[in-house]
Structures are given as structure tokens and as C-alpha cells.
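Forum: Protein Structure Q&A
Topic: Joint prediction for protein chains with partners

I've read a bunch of threads here and the consensus seems to be that you should model interacting components together rather than docking separate models afterwards. I'd like to see that in practice. Below is the full input, 970 residues plus whatever partners are listed. Could one of the regulars post the assembled result?
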Amino acid sequence: MATQEAGKLEWRISVDNGTTERLVPRSGLSKRIFLWLKDLVMKVIMERVAKFMRKAWRIGADDPAKVVHCLKVGLALSLVSIFYYMRPLYDGVGGNAMWAIMTVVVVFESNVGATFCKCVNRVVATILAGSLGIAVHWVATQSGKAEVFVIGCSVFLFAFAATYSRFVPSFKARFDYGAMIFILTFSLVSVGGYRVDKLVELAQQRVSTIAIGTSICIIITVFFCPIWAGSQLHRLIERNLEKLADSLDGCVAEYFKENEVSTNRNEDENTNMKLQGFKCVLNSKGTEEAMANLARWEPAHGSFNFRHPWKLYVKIGAAMRRCAYCLENLSICINYETEAPDQVKNHFGEACMKLSSASSKILRELADMMKNTRKSSKMDFLVFDMNSAVQELQETLKNVPIETNKPEEVPSEEENKVDSEERTTSMSLHEVLPVATLVSLLIENAARIQTAVEAVDELANLADFEQDSKKKTGDNNTKQPPLSS
Amino acid sequence: MATQEAGKLEWRISVDNGTTERLVPRSGLSKRIFLWLKDLVMKVIMERVAKFMRKAWRIGADDPAKVVHCLKVGLALSLVSIFYYMRPLYDGVGGNAMWAIMTVVVVFESNVGATFCKCVNRVVATILAGSLGIAVHWVATQSGKAEVFVIGCSVFLFAFAATYSRFVPSFKARFDYGAMIFILTFSLVSVGGYRVDKLVELAQQRVSTIAIGTSICIIITVFFCPIWAGSQLHRLIERNLEKLADSLDGCVAEYFKENEVSTNRNEDENTNMKLQGFKCVLNSKGTEEAMANLARWEPAHGSFNFRHPWKLYVKIGAAMRRCAYCLENLSICINYETEAPDQVKNHFGEACMKLSSASSKILRELADMMKNTRKSSKMDFLVFDMNSAVQELQETLKNVPIETNKPEEVPSEEENKVDSEERTTSMSLHEVLPVATLVSLLIENAARIQTAVEAVDELANLADFEQDSKKKTGDNNTKQPPLSS
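Posted by a regular:
Agreed with the consensus. Here's the joint model:
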């Protein structure tokens, strides 16, 4: 805008002084076009930059831990740079301070577990490959003319073996980075030894610079606002349990709510968000497994001991995913083309809502157990509630109005009333189908929630969650779950 | 074994010569214990190594491409080592040949796309960060006493910004590695410039070594048995489509097969494998997205042009996953506690089998379209078949025996016969529930398959798959789908 105004100014001046020089307006015009084009390009670029910045800002606002991580990277690099600026330190590592900087850049990860994993991998692989490389170099020098051949073959073989080992899943999960550093160091030492004279000294300096780099990383990652992979995983599972509970409640309520409301489906963005919450759980496998792997590298912190059973989180995650598959298919019922008649909905509504609320109560209790790392004293009651809700729903199925010869068996007044009302209008299984699907998915979901309960219980026992003494105060938490994200 | 036999030998000798020296048997005993322990430890180690080797062997046997990749890494490293061995080449890059080796180790990935991605990232980020670093270094030297301060601040700021950008998903998907290399190079150049005199020369040498390393990687990865991420993704989708078809057929057949057979469920390992095939699809999202991202870096190869619509593979994958969720829940019906009565099964069996075979035919046709990169001339018929199977199943629902007032509408002889047979035995919705669930899942699955068909059609149009002219010869392929893996 400022440039455009400057252009206008130019133009006006040239008109005023038009008598002295006729060419000025034309050059002013071309300048205007140039400025206008520049303006346009700048605008487009600025818009894209602004969009990127807005996206970046939102990421930071959603998860301040990411901003903290970036600050820590800057800090670690500034710290390690001191080795360059201070003569004694620089000379102390024989001018190889560069390796310390490199170590910090490649090793510093956003959580403690990943940083530890990379540090250990880097140090161990460097020492191992370095000594092997020196040994091969020695053998090569002894073999006279075949030196190049010996080095070449050994590089080929070790590179082959190390690369191959990276394909073995159990090895890859822990030592992938180490295998790469092994190849790197081995090649550098064995091949590099061909030209470098003081190989052992060089190796020593390199190990010490790497040690300096890794220690700076570890100190900063642990002592400045540490971000623990374990805690993140723990919170992820907790949040996912809450999302499942919200989705379950939301889906069933959505299905059984009055028709006039359901025409205006997008009335509430928030409700829709909750309904879709289970989708985060569907594809969480990779994240959970990666984080559980990283969490194993972390020292004891917060309420997690050194040998915290992180593998169980993967198991809990798998159980939750199975619940999410059920919820995914609940959407079939909601979007079914032929809506079930109202009397069918009324017949099943109460029992379904009861089961879904009993199920989601368990999910919320599990989330609360995770949140406060406590055992639950009322879980047994909740599971019992859920199972009796399942029983009740199955009874309701047996008393379904399209069926004619059984209602005598359970002659409760309310159901009899509904029955007599509905036996007049008969309906086909076709109409009942969505409700029937909903019912069987809810029953299956209840069974799957039970496996989740077992997995969390196992975790609570193995990880020594504290006994649920303050049950009364905890109760409020359970009923008003935090609805973050 | 050999050591144990050696031990026995020792023992016998000492007994034979027992008269001359009494101590020998005792020392033989301790030696035996030592040998036995050594043996035990060796055995345990050997067993673990053997287990690891067996696992590694199986990985290689399952996917020879992995072995090829390892050989290529060895080859690339041996090639790049030549720079060390040959004096003129070594001197040409001022003794910085080490950087070429390093580039090869960190840049060489198992498929062409990943290698290209890393090469481009590394080169661009190095040049960008190198020039920026030199600029900052120049500014710093001009600022006299504040030199260290200027360098320190710039390193902190750029490290912060680059690290932060790695959290933006769209940026991370393409330039994650580049951002790391940017931080690395910038720190090395700007900080390193504090001690190095010929900074520009150093930067030039480094760029040229990196160029050498990346070109060796690109040449080897493209010209020696190339492994294309795109082809892998294409085959993955194709195989997953086949797995879905097998699982669908298997699940429905499993449900409707005769009872006496179903008691012996584990009779066929192969059948079980097929039933579980859909599980690979459930968690394929991460792999598919990663491969689609990498495939975009690849040049034209095989039947894939440069701008092949790789993003559509993600869409197809998503549609397939939605089918897999349906299949996952089909297992509910199979494992349902109360099995549906035989007459119900008989009533629905034919229609369900028809729908499932129509659906799986479409999936196999899609797999065949992918395999031969051809458009399908008979897809419309297959979809029509599937939709009429859905219609038929819905009709069957309307004529379900527990319903009493509608069968007059569709008075086909066969169904009337069944009806009259079954109206005598009444049953509750409770008993019909598993079948009802199966039916609604099958119908939903058909709808989801249609979205997959649309996605594959879109791909076929955008990627210019060839017209299906040799329909007659192709026909056989479709009916005998390859049941690999």
C-alpha cells in the first residue's frame, strides 16, 4: 500500500511539472505498472506467508510444548557454540568442536525418550564402529598391497549387515539410528584411516566431542521443562478414552433424539466434534507404539517408575481401537436411509441409552484412573451396571413388538402398554434393521470395553497405581470429565 | 559340542594317567565345569543369534527387494570410497571426501522417492543455509566486538524457526530432513566461520562433496534394480484390495457354512489367514500416506507418469479402510454367543452370499484394474449386480418369517414355501440379531465399496489407464485372482 501511494505521489508531481518534461508521465506509468505488479506479487507472497504463520501460530498455541522444544534446541546450540568461541575448549578437542554441534543438531529430539535413545545409540555405535574400524584399518595396513581391497570388502560387508539389521522390526524399533551411525563411523574410520595418520587420536577426539554434545543434549532435555514421551503417551490414552466416551454418548443420543431436531444436524459444531472424536483413536496405533518404544528409554519421572509397563499402553490402545471400530459402524445406523419408526425407537431408546451411558461411564472412569494414576474401587460396580444394562437390552430384544407369542413372559405394565400400542402396526425386519444393528454394536462394544478395563486394571496392578481412598472427592471428577481438545 | 568332546578327552587321559598325578582329575573337573558353563553361555548366545538370523532370513526371503537395497548400500559406499583411495579425486575436494561418504550413508534410502527427497532436501538446504551462514558471518565480522553475540543470536533464531517449521504437517511431510540439514549447515558455517579462515572455499568444497555423494546415490538407486515407492504403493493397494475380497468371502462363508464344520474352526490355517487379511488394511494409513508423499518425488517410471495422482491412493486407501471397519465388525456376527436358528440362516444365506460374492467380485476387479493399470469395461455391470443383490437382500428382509402381514406382496413360490414352513416356529429379534447385523454390515459395506470404486475410477481417468480392450482375455484373470501373500 505504501509503495502504491508513493507511485501516486510521483504521478501527481509529474503532471504538475508537465510543462518542463513530457517523458515523466510515461515513465511514471511504467513505474506504476511495475509497482502494481510488485505489489501484487508481494501480496500473494505475504498472503501465503501469513497463512503459513497463522497455521504455525495455531500449532504453537495448541501445544506450547512444541515452542518450548524449539527454544531448547536454540539453547542447546548456543551452549555448544561456546566450544567454538572459547579458545581453551576449542583446542582441548583438537579443533573438532564441529562434531559436538553436529551431535546436538541430529540428536536433540522433542521428548526425553527420543533424545536418550539417539544419544545412547550414537555413543555406543560410534565406539563400537570406531574400534572395529581401527581394527580393520590395522589388518589392512598389515596386508600390504591388498589394503584397499581389505578395506573395501569390509566396508561392503559391514554396510550390508548393518543395513539389513535395520529391516528386523525388533531391532529397528530400538537401534535404527545406531545402525546408521555404525555404518557412518565405520566407513569414516576405516576408509578415512587410509589418509589420516593419527587415527587413534582422531577417534578419541571424536568420541569426546560426541560425549560433550550428548551430555549437553541430555542436560537440557531433562532439566529444562522436560517433555516426557511417557507422560505424553499416558495423556494420549487418557484423552482418547474420554473421546471414546463422548462419541459413544453422542452417537446414541443423536440416534434417539427427536426427529425435528435431527433435521438441523449441524446446529452445534461442538457436538459434531465430539461425535467424531473416536476417529482419532482409529489411526493411533503407530503413534502409540512409537511412543511406548521411546518411553522405555526414559528414567523414572513423575508417577512413572523406571520399569513402568509401557507395553501395556499398546495393549490398552488396541482394546480402545476395537471399541472405535464399533463406534465407526454406529454411524451406519445414524445415516441409514430408512429411519426406524418412532415406536421402535421408543421401545429400544431407554435400554440403549442406559447401556451407552453405563459404557461411557466406564470409559470415563478409566480415563480418570489414568489421570490420577489410581485404582478404581467402583469399577466392579460400573462393570456390573453395564452387564445388567446389556441383559436388560437383550430382554427388550426378546419383547420386541414385531414378535407375537412371547410378551406374556415378562408382563411389566409399561412394556405391555407399548406392546398393545404397537401390535396394531406391524413392521418388517427391514424397518427394525438400523436399531437392531445399533443394539448389537452396543452389546459388542460393551464386551470390548471390558477388555479395555482388564488391560487398564493390569496396568494399575503392575504400575502400582495408588488405592482409591478418596473415592468421594474423585466422584465429581468422573461425572464432569475434562473436555479438552 | 566340539568343546565338550575336548573336555571328555581331557578327562579320560587324566584317569588313565591317574597314578602319576592326583591333582589332574580335580583340575579336569573344574575345567569341565568351566567348559560346561562356557558351552551353556555359547548355546544361549548361539540360540539367540540363530533366532535373529532365522528372522532376518525370513524377512529377506519374503521381500528380496530388501536384500537388494542392502547390496546397493554396500555398493554405493564402496564407490564413494574410491574418492579416498584415488589421490587426484581426494585432492580435488581438498581432503573433504569424508562428506561424500557421510552423504551416502544418511541419504541412501530403500526406495527411489525417499532417496530423491533426501538428496534434494540436503542439497537445497545446504546451499541455502551455507549462503545464509556466510552472510551472517560477514555481518558478524563487520560488527567488531559484538561478533560472538551476533552469531549466537542468529544461530538461536534460525534454529528456533527451522525446528518450529518441522512441526507444521504440510512442511514436515516434504522438508523435514531439509530443516534439520539447514540448522546443521547454518550452525557449522556461521559458528565454524569464527575459527576457519577460508570459509567460502570450505563451503564450495562441502557443496561439491555433497553433490558427489548425492549423484552416486541417485545413480545407484535409479539404475541398479530400482525400488520405486510408487510401485510399492500401487502393489500395496492392489494386494489390500485382494485381501479385503478374500476376507469378505471368507467371513460370510464362515458364518453360513454348516454347523458340523464350524466346530472344527482351525481346520485350515490358510482360511484363517484369509479371514484375517483385512487387518492389514485397518492400520495401513500411515504407510500409505508416507509412501504417497515419497512417490511424488519420483520421476516417471513404468506406467506411472511424472505427475501421477499419488494423492488418490490415499483416498482409495481411506475408502478401503472404511470397508475394513465393516469387516472387522462382521466378526461380531461370527462370534456371537447365540447362534441364529438354521431356518433364519437358510432364509438369508443365499441373498447374503450373493451380495458378498458380488461385492468381492468388485474388489477383485478393482485389484485387477490396478494390477494391469487398465480401465474396466464391466465395472458398471458389477456395480449394478451388487446393487441388485442389495435390493434382493432388502426384499428378503421384508419377507422375514417373523413378520406376518406382508408376504402377500411378493408371492414368489419359493419364498412362500419357506414362509409357510417357518411361520409355525416363531422367534424373537434376539435370535435374529446376528443375522440382522450381518445383513446391515454387508449393505453398508456395499455402499463403502462404491466409494472405493469411485476413487479407483477417478485414478484410472486422471492417470490415463488404458482402455479395457482385451476384455475377453482379461476376464480369466478376474475370475482366478492371484492369491499371493
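Chain A touches chain B through 86 residues (CB under 8 Å).
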